[in-house]
């Protein structure tokens, strides 16, 4: 028997199920007898909660197609940081026992920075143990902050949603002949890629958002007040896009509530950068002002998904299986953008230890000198990633998705 197991973990995206679809389809073609899915990430594998995805394909000939365009995570997610295998090997011994019971040949982990930490530790453990079990990572994150890949699945679709929403908000805010400020808070704790995508909302007739603030440049309250005041001299409405993780010149988060408690991976839990800026500008300028937190829709709006994004997500999942077929392990699949006028990518790989727990920042030359906007280099980088529309299936006027898999079918 040659079986494999795949998990999804971290935050959901509009494209992560497309990566899962790519893994399943290619693994089936490669002759894996059973393709298992861990329920709720590595937690499900540890508790021996899995589903047989091979059976899902047999039950529904359109399963792969439906999975490709279903948002969030079909297998469910978790946020569990595995301990160092050299310090606490017992949990890995248990995983190894479960894998042997299921005749697992390869483990595929789909996720972001923290998920690649899991992939790295499993690969290290199996190598030290002398096991032939292969471990391959498949990237995803709307934050686009994974190292050594041009961009990440999920980002293109989230960027398309952000740009579309900002454009719609701009039209909304321009209708009244009164001075007003609107602030859109966009996800991005350590990097501002997604907030930068708000610039794609602009057209030759619409210059919104007028200000964009990313975490890569320290935020000056004084300059923001000056810039907003100056803009309002010649226009009635100003739209500001701000990353949730912006910091002031002292390095402190600009947020209404920078919670003291970190998450399980040591990341600060942020809340209300937009609300905090609303208060600051309201006190300083006195104009009508409101803040909007885009929040969850940034990562689940499949009705606005980028076809480029979903196709590349599928391709990366398929490429992961190809690496395993070549006998490789401890790698993460990557996207490499060709240096040509016409957008084209190839799939590669990188040792996962070079990616895990790292953060890819927005390059400084993608941000203007004052730190309140992006440059044409950023626009050129972003544009191809949002291209193409996904053919959706509708029922009673609403998009139709697969039922949530991890709630409907498990085997112990």
From TrEMBL:
Q: Where in the cell is it found?
A: Cytoplasm
Q: Where is the site Important for catalytic activity and substrate specificity?
A: 114
Q: Where does diphosphate bind?
A: 11
Q: Which cofactor is recorded for it?
A: Mg(2+)
Q: Which GO molecular function annotations are given, in alphabetical order? A: 6-phosphofructokinase activity; diphosphate-fructose-6-phosphate 1-phosphotransferase activity; metal ion binding
Q: What does this protein do?
A: Catalyzes the phosphorylation of D-fructose 6-phosphate, the first committing step of glycolysis. Uses inorganic phosphate (PPi) as phosphoryl donor instead of ATP like common ATP-dependent phosphofructokinases (ATP-PFKs), which renders the reaction reversible, and can thus function both in glycolysis and gluconeogenesis. Consistently, PPi-PFK can replace the enzymes of both the forward (ATP-PFK) and reverse (fructose-bisphosphatase (FBPase)) reactions.
Subunit structure and binding partners: Homodimer.
Which family is annotated? Answer: Belongs to the phosphofructokinase type A (PFKA) family. PPi-dependent PFK group II subfamily. Clade 'B2' sub-subfamily.
Q: Know the name of this protein?
A: Pyrophosphate--fructose 6-phosphate 1-phosphotransferase
The organism named in the record is: Candidatus Weimeria bifida
